[in-house]
Amino acid sequence: MNNFFDHKILELGQWLEALFNDVPSLKIVVHIVLSTLPLMLAFMGAFAFSTWLERKGLARIQNRPGPNRVGIFGLLQPLADGIKMLMKEDIVPNQSDKLFHLMAPGLLMVPAMVGIGFLPIGDGLSALPLDSAILFFFAIGSMNTIAVFMAGWSSRNKYSLLGGMRAVAQMISYEIPLVLSAVTVIMIAGSLNGQEIVASQQIPSWIGSGNIIKEFFGQILGWHIFKPWGFAGFIFFFIAALAEANRSPFDLPEADSEIIAGHLTEYSGFKYAIFFIAEYISAFAIAGIAVTLFLGGWSGPLLSGIPWFIIKLFSLFAVMIWIRGTLPRLRVDQLMGYAWKFLMPLAILNIFVVGLYYFAEQQWGTMIALIGGWIFGFGALQLAAKGLSRLNKSPLLKGKRVYQFAE
Amino acid sequence: MSITFFILATIAILGGVLAITLRNVIHAVFSVLLFFSAIAGLFLLLLAEFIAAVQILVYIGSVGILMLFAIMLTTKVMGDTTKTVHSRGWIWGAISVTALLLGVLVPFISTPQPEAVSILSNFDPSVKQLGLVLMDPYFASVGVIALLLTAGLIGAVVAASSASEATE
Fold it and tell me: Which residue of A has its CA nearest to B73?
């Protein structure tokens, strides 16, 4: 019964492909279209819904109604926004680098769209089932930086250039803790393949036991977030993911109150909309990788794989909205210091914890490894975090604060 | 297959040529990145997906950014203001490139090629194989490289911290 829905979708796809058995060249095209187009459309739909969700959520946090004019609960607001964006005039600065100014939004779309292809969205359902999918995801994600820099540089605007520089510095810095915290899961799963990572988070002996309660929990308790290193790793990963996706509180590259939206300053109309779409889809993609690595991917009891994945994805996105409504933006020096002096050492320590956990599990079994891991492994991480924050504390200022460039 | 190869090869050559001919330094860097991505595509075509991923991660994600940073930190090279220095160096370059081409291409063409055999049937492109090879026969070299990189990292930290103390 479980994953019934996923298998039906897979069968439907195979049936559609089988119709073209006589024409092999056409079959490849059909295969490509079937494995990419639904995913792209689904994520575009998710983008539209998430803009509504974000505006509603922020409005709720700020105690105001939010969009409520178009459609029931304002649900058609994304459509209205889209039409508005399409009808706006496209302004290109006179001095700008015309070709790069045009290319940047498109280039930003590439990593976003390729990134969602690596997500295992259901049982046996991933558009790009590569052996090294996770590594490829991070590699493609690093192309984001290039696109943002291109946008900032080609606009010939001081604020845009500042935004571009900030984006480059931030994305390079946070990529390291991001990948280091993902390494823990790869070590345990022994694979870079998304489906195998999901499989490593199920307890097969419980699922096949026939006992209903064991079957129920066998699909939950194996998630890496319930392990000491996984819990810590998820937190590091999520913080770094927020920075990678330029989400608040790490939205310095487009800080509207400081550098007037940074690399977006000189963009208008539909190009601006494309930037927006790419940013949201990248956020979804990185949240999807977080779900795959730490939250059990598509595995879960009762429901099928795809609904579980959607539920987890939107829960993570809701947390992102919640954080955006709650936390103020970081300062540039705080941002860099946080990545290099706090997150990175902790992520490296977490790799050692996971190595010890692995051998403890092999030696003494899962139960003892878990208990020991929570006490010693998580304790060590806690201590390290305390020590690091004490080390990083800037010395108390004696006398009056002196500003170099301001009164 | 061969169509894809020729498209990617053309893009790679185009990127390389643009990188050395364009006056604008930033444009040149982006052409180099175009070249790198075409090379990554060629690796994918050879079913070496791991190498392709590393190519993108290291060359586009890091080396390209490093070049952009270097340009940003150098004054007066942004934009179209750069002047090309004319020198006789190109003659030596042309001679050496011709010698290299003749030395590599002519023997390559003149030797009879073995018949192309499809290796797809008994080919295992998995990352696991690569990992086993790196960890077993080449473990010593991987260890030495890791040590070297760590030394470099520590050196960078030391260099950066002493520089900031000097300015204070």
Answer: A165
